[in-house]
Every structure is written in C-alpha cells, then in structure tokens.
Amino acid sequence: MKYVNLGSTKEKVSEFCFGAMMLGTAMDKSSSFKALDHFYDEMGGNFIDTANCYAWWLGTGEFIGDESENVLGEWMKARKNRDKLFIATKVGARLKDPYHIRNSKGEVYWDRVKDEYEGLTKEVILREIDNSLLRLKTDYIDLYYTHVYDKNTPIDETMDTLNTLIKAGKIRYLGASNLSANQLRNANQVSEAHNLQKYSVLQAEYSYIHPKEGTNADSETHAGKEMFDYVASEGMAFCAYSPLLKGIYTNREKRNQYYNWHLYNSEEARRRLDLIENISQKLNITGNQLVLAWMLRHNPQIIPILGFSKMEQYFENIQACNINIPEEYLTLLNA
Ligand SMILES: NC(=O)c1ccc[n+]([C@@H]2O[C@H](COP(=O)([O-])OP(=O)(O)OC[C@H]3O[C@@H](n4cnc5c(N)ncnc54)[C@H](OP(=O)(O)O)[C@@H]3O)[C@@H](O)[C@H]2O)c1
C-alpha cells in the first residue's frame, strides 16, 4: 500500500485508513484480529480509525461503546506494534448513559441520541482521553478527533483543553469530524487567536455519489466544494468516512436498506451508479472496489476510511489499492 502525507503535518500514513468501527461488535475478536493482521502485515497499512463510542448502537443493549478501542488495544498489545501505527480516536459522541437509550425490545430511541452525546467540555475531554488510553493500552493518541459539533460548549474551552493534552504528551494532532465549513473555520480562528494548535485533519462523509441539492443542510451529511476549498486552504488532510455509503455500489438492494438513501436517490445519482456498474463490469472488479480505487486518485487528495462488518467485505475493499483505473475510465468517472 502506498503512503501519503497527512495534510501539511510531517506524518506519512497509509493511503487507506482502517475503519475499526465494527471491531468487537459485528466482528468478533478473532475476525477483528484477522483483519488487523492482514492490514498491518500483508498490506503494510499503519493508519487506524476508532472512537470512544464504537459501536454501542449494534445489538439490543449488550454494547456500550468500549468495544472497538478495547479490541484494538488488545491487538496492539499482543502484536507489540503500537509504535508502528498511527492511531486515531474520537471524543464527544459517547452516550451519557448507553443503558437507557432503548425500549424494552432493545430498539434504540434514535430521536434522542444527539441530545445524549457527552459533548466536548473540559470535564468530558479530560476524563475520556484517559479512558481511551486505558482501553487502547497506550500512553498517546496520534490523532484525536472531536467527533461532533457541541453547540453547548464554547469552542475555546474545547480547543484549550485539547491543547493541554498535547502539552501533556497524550495526543499529537487534532482532528475535527462532522463540522460544517463555517464551524471548522471558526474553531481554527479561535485556536489561532489563542496561539493554540489548530485542527490538522477533517473527517467527513464523502463518496462517489452526492446528496440531492438542498438536502445537505446537516454537517453530518456529506462534504462538498466549500469544505474541500477550506481544508485545502488550511493544508489540512481530508479523511472520508462511509466511502461506500453502506455498500450501495455493488448491491442494488442495499440502496433501499440504507437509512439515508432518500437523500441520494436522484437522477444524477442513478447516472453515476450506472457508470460505476458499467465500468466495474468492464474492469472485472466490483462497484465498491471501483469507488474506493477512484477515491485514491481523487484530486484534492482524500484518505478513505474502509468500512466493513464481515471479513469478505474487508478483503474485497482493501484490494482496491491494487486496482489501476485506466485513464479513459478515470476521465469518464470525473466527468
Ligand atoms: N466520524 C464519523 O462520524 C464517522 C461515521 C461513520 C464512520 N466513521 C469511520 O469510518 C469508517 C468507515 O465508515 P462506514 O463503516 O460507515 O463505511 P461504509 O463504506 O459505508 O461501509 C460500511 C458498510 O457497508 C457495507 N459494505 C462495506 N463493504 C462492502 C462490500 N464489499 N460489499 C457489501 N457491503 C459492504 C457493510 O454493510 P453491512 O454491515 O450492512 O453488510 C458495512 O458495514 C468506520 O469504521 C469509522 O472508523 C466515522
């Protein structure tokens, strides 16, 4: 696997980031280890993304959000490879009380979830960094993301606290996730005014199809031109989550199962999906692989975060780094 610059930091990371969201939940410990071993040993990857809340929402109440960091920590300890990796985790979207967010059948009250996020106060960040370090069995995090926007906490409190963690050696770089371009600009301006380290990385949803015009009001939905322009102007890196939009490119049935499909279901999206089907058949690869391979050739550069809940999905997706899209098809895809 190739290595790329992480924005204007001096760090080199693998061109694919390993999305650890399903480790310890949808993927049991043994298959989690197998996927991590393959990514690290066979593919030479070093960049891994987790959070302090993955993946509490699966199952019917048996998970609380510790699972992914726990399994990743156990794996790094067993393989003694912590210092060879670039580990990203996140704070802010853990639930205050994961035990009371479900009805008696174990179904999540999704309309309450955002109000239940812990947020980004000084108290939460100082507590949660130590919990993440314990679970990950390490004494530093390479990239620490604020997971969501917290409208109730002044941004200077958050940025100031994150900077005390940098000074204490607990974190190295700061990342932001799920912010609008304006929210990100504002946070960076506050940091600049206070002489604090700014965000080096943005993590947002991005894929080959985009939401319909007018449906992208929510900063959690999808990155667009304004965001790319701002990120480039700041020399920030861009990491793309949900690059396959839950697997819709190869399997048509998954489109209707995807909870956000109504935001994407447009004439333009259908044309793009047809093009993906057409070109992937000609290249004898899957639509999902074509999208991931296209993302690796994206200008401006993006680092896709691979998502999967099964070993066979992981193996299919990771092979996209070995796919060379002929120039004529790349031109068609970009057009
Ligand atoms: N910052 C954030 O707010 C945020 C949000 C989401 C994710 N992330 C990060 O980004 C990573 C990737 O995100 P994601 O899991 O949402 O990615 P994704 O690209 O949308 O893929 C996830 C889902 O797509 C389906 N899928 C993936 N590969 C497939 C294949 N080859 N064939 C068929 N179906 C396939 C699977 O669905 P099924 O399980 O239904 O089979 C899988 O669980 C996560 O691990 C996490 O680290 C961050």
TrEMBL record:
Keywords: Oxidoreductase. This is Aldo/keto reductase. InterPro entries: AKR_Detox_Biosynth (IPR050523), NAD(P)_OxRdtase_dom_sf (IPR036812), NADP_OxRdtase_dom (IPR023210). One of its GO terms (molecular function) is oxidoreductase activity. It comes from the Bacteria. Residues 17-331 form the NADP-dependent oxidoreductase domain. It comes from Variimorphobacter saccharofermentans. The keyword Ribonucleoprotein does not apply.
